[in-house]
């Protein structure tokens, strides 16, 4: 079984176990995957987009104030190393539109211009080389935390590693060496970002 399939089965069970049967079933009924055109464009920009991320986008093309069947949804779909903190999956179009967001907002951080900001040594210190795929925003509309696939690591890092940014205090941390490892992290922590209180 592919890691993406394993992840989705576990996510469904987490919703079911947290009084979210109706929530999950409604989501599953109205959602659809990314268009072929958008996926081709995403692949042009990020030729090494991880296959498990492709699989997730083919299952659902974003869960972040996304309109399906004339209904706007905000559906918790991912997590991070921040315990019990939910994230949304961005759509393929948002990932395309946000291709330069890391450089726009974080170039000075990456260049280590702020001593008070913790930045993992696995992350490059040359903003001109920055190639990050922004795939997820946290429940706070992305204002508090974002997730990226990093295709431009430092010599200590690995291409395709997952970077988590969190605000206040600002920090950039590598939380997994690959997207596969990232999904496995969420599986191993029991999808603790899904809570019964979120179903109301």
UniProtKB/TrEMBL annotation:
Superkingdom, natural source: Bacteria
SUPFAM superfamilies the UniProt entry points to: SMI1/KNR4-like
Limits of the Knr4/Smi1-like domain: 48-184
Protein's name according to its UniProt entry: SMI1/KNR4 family protein
Species, as recorded: Sphingobacterium puteale
Lineage: Bacteria, Pseudomonadati, Bacteroidota, Sphingobacteriia, Sphingobacteriales
């Amino acid at each position: 079984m592919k890691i993406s399939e394993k992840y989705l089965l576990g996510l469904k069970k987490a919703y079911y176990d947290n009084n979210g049967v109706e929530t999950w079933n409604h989501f599953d009924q109205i959602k659809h995957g990314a268009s072929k055109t958008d996926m081709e464009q995403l692949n042009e920009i990020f030729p090494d987009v991880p296959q498990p991320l492709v699989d997730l986008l083919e299952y659902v093309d974003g869960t972040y104030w996304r309109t399906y069947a004339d209904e706007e949804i905000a559906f918790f779909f991912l997590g991070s190393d921040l315990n019990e903190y939910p994230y949304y999956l961005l759509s393929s179009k948002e990932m395309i539109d946000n291709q330069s967001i890391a450089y726009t907002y974080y170039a000075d951080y990456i260049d280590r211009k702020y001593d008070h900001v913790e930045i993992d040594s696995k992350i490059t210190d040359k903003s001109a080389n920055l190639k990050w795929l922004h795939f997820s925003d946290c429940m706070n509309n992305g204002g508090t935390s974002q997730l990226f696939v990093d295709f431009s690591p430092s010599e200590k890092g690995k291409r395709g590693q997952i970077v988590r940014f969190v605000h206040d205090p600002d920090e950039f941390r590598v939380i997994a060496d690959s997207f596969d490892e990232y999904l496995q992290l969420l599986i191993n922590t029991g999808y603790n970002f899904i809570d019964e209180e979120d179903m109301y």
